[in-house]
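ENTRY TYPE: paired fold submission
RECORD: A
CONTENT: sequence, then structure tokens
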Amino acid sequence: MKIKILLTVGIFVSAVAVSTAQNANSAAITDRLQTVVKSYTSGNGFMGTVLVADGDQNLLDQGYGMASLEWSIPNDPDTKFRVCSLTKQFTATLVLLLEQDGKLHIDDPVSKYMSDAPARWEKITFGNCSITPQGFPISSMTKNLMHGA
């Protein structure tokens, strides 16, 4: 009985020691991350949010600078940003990589991969979506495709 209790206490102490070491290591990593980020945020050179995660553990999740200079609203981890067209280059790259892998073709209709696409999208291809900033060319041909003429 005494050995069983000592073994249980020993396992508990070992688990606490490992957890403490991991927390100390995480704290050191977080401190280093904050130092690196501060080198970019000094003088408001960078204003935004930073999230660095390792698996399910957030090592750094913090806002820096102002979300609105006019209204003096600071950034925080929940600040919403308008990304506008920032993601288009990544989407185009992804489509081209999928084409390279033979998983789709640039001339495929978008509706082939979207079962809930409206019928009027039937003739719109990935190629159509990639040739103008709006995602598809605004021409009489496109207007006809979009409105089913």
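RECORD: B
CONTENT: sequence, then structure tokens
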Amino acid sequence: MLRGMIDFLLSNHAEAQQLRTMFVWKIVPMLNPDGVIHGNYRCNLAGHDLNRRWQNPDPSVHPEIYYYKRYILKCKGENNNSDYIQQQCNRNIFNSYLSAGGNSSCVSSTDPPNSNIAMFIDLHGHSSKKNIFIYGCSDESAKELPLLASKIVRGFSFKDCAFEIESKKEGTARVALWRDLQIPNIFTVESSFCSFEEENFHFKIKDYEEVGKGLC
């Protein structure tokens, strides 16, 4: 999927040119290279599921998540409040959500009122469900992108999308960053390891690339 997104964004297509003009795209191709090279897709070499560590990442055990989250928060602070990053470092934001039980009320009033991050997308593979679908958060406006995707992306299923916040998902990138950034457009895009529900064939690499292109 990511390959398809990158190829489209770098193309001469008019929509791609407009997207490059309107937004700065920051792309991280993989957050678990050490685990993946040993055959894991969820756990790093320490045996930790990295997509359950976003609330309180440990720099010594989950360095990929710790420093990526720190960078995302830095992007949020840019051009909004020059003291924002230092204030967050002093408060140790990575621990504050743990002590507050994941409640968004622990975000202080010193947070910038408007984030300059428009969207965060986390690309995942799903080992049991079919189709392409999205997990979002509870903002009603978060349903707009999945609804549009269901109209233009082959195999995208809006009925398989979900927008609830379960307590067991508090440590995921989607929920933790939704609480931190306070913007609606934070998604996990899930692609089946198998196929579309209504078509009897297995996904090929080209299919996933077309999904990434369609999402753009």
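NOTES ON RECORD B: The mean pLDDT is 81. Strands lie at 120-126, 132-135, 186-192.
STATUS: closed
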